[in-house]
Amino acid sequence: MTPINDGDERADARSLPLFAEGWVRRATVTGPGRAPVLALYHPDSALSYVELDDYGAPLPIDDRGTDLIGRIEAFWPHPTFTSADLEGLATLSREIRYLLLSRLAQEGAPPPEVFHVLPWEPVIELATAVGQLLDGALPLPLSDEALDLGHWVTPAVIGVTGPLEQLHEGLTEGDPVLAARGGTALCAGLSSADPARLPELVTAALTEVVRRLASVNPFLRHAAILTADRLTGLATAAGFVTPLESDLSKAAAGTDDRTVVGQLGDAGAYSARAEVTVGGRLKVTVELAVEATTERELFLDAYGGAFAPVVVSAAGESLQYWVALEARRRWLSGTLDVPAPRGRFEVGTEEAVTGVWGLAGVSPDELLASLAGADRAGLQVWRAAAESAPVGHPLRQAVRRHDEHGGAL
User: What's the rounded Cα separation, in Å, for the pair 266 and 370?
Assistant: First the structure.
């Protein structure tokens, strides 16, 4: 047999010289069962090449399926879809649906409802189980597909199925660190998702999960509520992004021009205050209302320290900071004091409070800016987290460099 793609599983037949002209989609029979599978066929030579999935297995299909794929590809990468087309897509194998919509998402701009034909049932099954676990129910048996969601819905959304599996495993195994990491990542993934790409039942199941996360994890509460509201299209009562102006003469005309203050949040359990001073500094204060209880201590142990993300955006660029939160009797709080960008900019605190594990992928240089902006109490939190962080964690290097240079960058 002559190699077609030289072993490159990412090779696209459309770009290979062999298939440059005259090839059409066709269902051909092959294998011991003589079942119809997807193939490329050349009418002149009568040659057929069977298409394979990521595991080297043929893709089962019938003539109606190949006709549908042919119509879609005839108008690639901007095909239109009738309701009958969508119904036909839903009957194709999950492998074909994944491969087709993955390509289309990369190369075209398909309408969001096209992604509803992906195999969402295992996602609903697992999300429902996670919601029940968050309510204190015992783990229930799940299908193999629900326990291993794989990549099947990633053409529609990324950063969701993996964290959902992680959250389920953490709750099932009684691992608070794994559950906290999974819940945090799930909120982040859903916050960047296009809700229109999710079928109604999927949206309902995932919304229920994040709302229950908000009720059981105070460190996730504000981010989980924001995520649930985005999924359901509800306008939030609290805005965790505020515009500011470093030119105080413009920003505070007619008022006390020594500072300009932006309030983030609704003064509820999680709130932040951003202030621009006459010295050109940006001061951000974050407060999370949570009583000193045994439960709070368990969360702090699982997080290895609490750090509130702050995003400062100006002129199309963003800087990421973290505010180290000191544990007090009735709340966690911390401050950040960094140079303010020139002109107009925005400060956002929408992301969930994270733990030391959430900083593992951050470079020491990025962390240094947050350490330099911390006050004495904040530095104590940073140092304690660094001491408990795994060997090789970037926070260890950042704290060491900060202390070696006396806090100067």
Answer: 25
| Low-confidence winner among 25-39, 209-223, 315-329 (lowest mean pLDDT) | 25-39
Distance in angstroms (rounded) separating the CA atoms of residues 393 and 14: 44
Q: What is the CA radius of gyration of the chain?
A: 26
Neighbours of 165 (CB within 10 A): 19
Residues 124, 134: Cα–Cα separation, whole Å: 15
Q: CA angle, corner 397, sides to 394 and 398, nearest 5? A: 85
The token pair that represents 220 in the structure block: 């996730």
Share of the chain above pLDDT 70, in %: 91
